[in-house]
Amino acid sequence: MGNIQAVIDLPEELYLALSASGLTKEKIAGESRKLLALQCFKEKVLSLGRAGELSGLSKWDFIEYLSDNDVPVVDYDQDEMKREFEIADTLSERLKK
Question: Are 64 and 55 spatial neighbours (Cβ–Cβ below 8 Å)?
Answer without folding.
Answer: no
